[in-house]
Design goal:
The protein is mostly helical and about 375 residues long. It is built from 17 helices and no strands. α10 runs antiparallel to α16. The protein is globular, with a radius of gyration of 22 Å.
């Protein structure tokens, strides 16, 4: 059930009006754990709260205080139930979800990846013609104008899901033909979304995974020579392909502009950075800051602008204290992705659940 629940925010990041429903879910689903926790907290003098949970309570407590001090920023129902309360739901899902449920989640995203491929082959952005972003692919040569959305609101959301599903394959130790089939499908679907941030993050992860695998081989291992030759051949092919089609690749990645295309971030980032400079300590009073209809397209700028630097430091501390050699690749991939997209720090989202999974369920740290 948790796996299915955690997939709900992937259709689009969890809507504001479902915050209350999610909080009710916390109380009902985890009532025994919550009651037991507070009974132990007040009854046992030597009870020690897990450090990660303590940091989460500190974040929630400081954020609540921040919202009370800046109550005048309430603009609608989305601000009445603070989004940061849902970090507790993210924590509970991450520490309770089972391997079977994670595999179900991977298969759900696999199903949506097949929809992405079907949409692309049919020449439409989505099969849901009522969505504002629905369009029929034009005859132009830009990959950017041939993006498929799967079952999601836009290509960025479905690409984020695919990226996380790829990371989860190694996390749950899927092996054999099933793992290779899933990874191949995810890579094809990722290309058809043409979300550049996700493609770069996934490419970086694959390269580092290959490097890790090669370094894990013993020098006398009979597979080392074959792996080395195969890897060198692939590398030379990529160099040749990049050299031969460099103009095409540059045009596609820059949308024929021949300069770095940041998709509006050159206007969004200065707004958020300017706001941070003027509201360094309290941010936006822990009410999520928007630039019109746009978020910061950077999770770290977003969390500082929303909460201020003090509360943001506890978010960062929660990540830094849990990074280890066991989870550096998936966590690092999500952090790189979140430099150019609003990936983590939503309160609850698939990305947040994935981040907490990698941080708290690795082999080195206990929850």
């Amino acid at each position: 059930m948790l796996g299915l629940l955690s997939y709900i925010p992937t259709l689009a990041y969890i809507p504001h009006y479902t915050y209350l429903l999610a909080l009710v879910y916390i109380v009902v689903k985890f009532r025994r754990e919550i009651i037991t926790f507070f009974l132990r907290f007040f009854a046992e003098r030597d009870f020690r709260m897990p450090t990660n949970l303590l940091l989460i309570f500190i974040i929630i407590g400081l954020s609540l205080a921040n919202t009370v001090l800046h109550y005048m920023k309430i603009e609608g129902i989305k601000d009445v139930v603070p989004f940061f309360l849902l970090i507790l739901l993210t924590y509970l899902i991450a520490v309770k979800i089972s391997r079977k449920e994670i595999i179900i989640l991977i298969l759900l995203i696999f199903g949506e990846s097949l929809v992405v491929i079907a949409e692309y082959l049919n020449g439409v952005s989505t099969f849901f013609t009522g969505l504002p972003e629905y369009f029929v692919f034009d005859t132009g040569e830009l990959w950017y104008n041939r993006r498929s959305y799967g079952l999601s609101e836009n290509s960025s959301i479905v690409a984020a899901k695919i990226l996380l599903a790829f990371l989860l394959i190694d996390f749950v130790r899927l092996r054999g033909w099933m793992a290779y089939g899933l990874m191949a499908t995810f890579m094809i679907a990722m290309f058809m979304t043409f979300n550049r941030t996700s493609i770069i993050a996934l490419t970086l992860y694959i390269i580092l995974m290959i490097v890790r695998y090669v370094l894990s081989l013993e020098w006398k291992n009979k597979h080392l020579i074959s792996v080395g030759i195969f890897g060198l051949a692939i590398f030379l092919c990529l160099v040749y392909f990049t050299y031969q089609y460099s103009d095409v690749l540059i045009d596609q990645l820059t949308r024929n502009q021949r300069k770095v295309d940041v998709s509006g971030r050159d206007k969004i980032w200065p707004f958020f950075i300017g706001f941070i400079k003027s509201n360094f300590v309290f941010g936006n009073g822990s009410y999520k800051l928007w630039f019109g209809d746009y978020h910061a397209h950077n999770s770290f700028i977003q969390v500082v602008a929303t909460h201020g630097v003090v509360i943001a430091c506890f978010y960062f501390l929660l990540i830094l204290r849990n990074i280890s050699i066991y989870n550096i690749l998936p966590v690092g991939t999500l952090l790189v992705y979140s430099l150019f997209q609003y990936g983590i720090f939503w309160g609850v989202s698939l990305m947040d659940i994935g981040l907490f999974l990698f941080l708290f369920r690795s082999n080195h740290f206990s929850v």
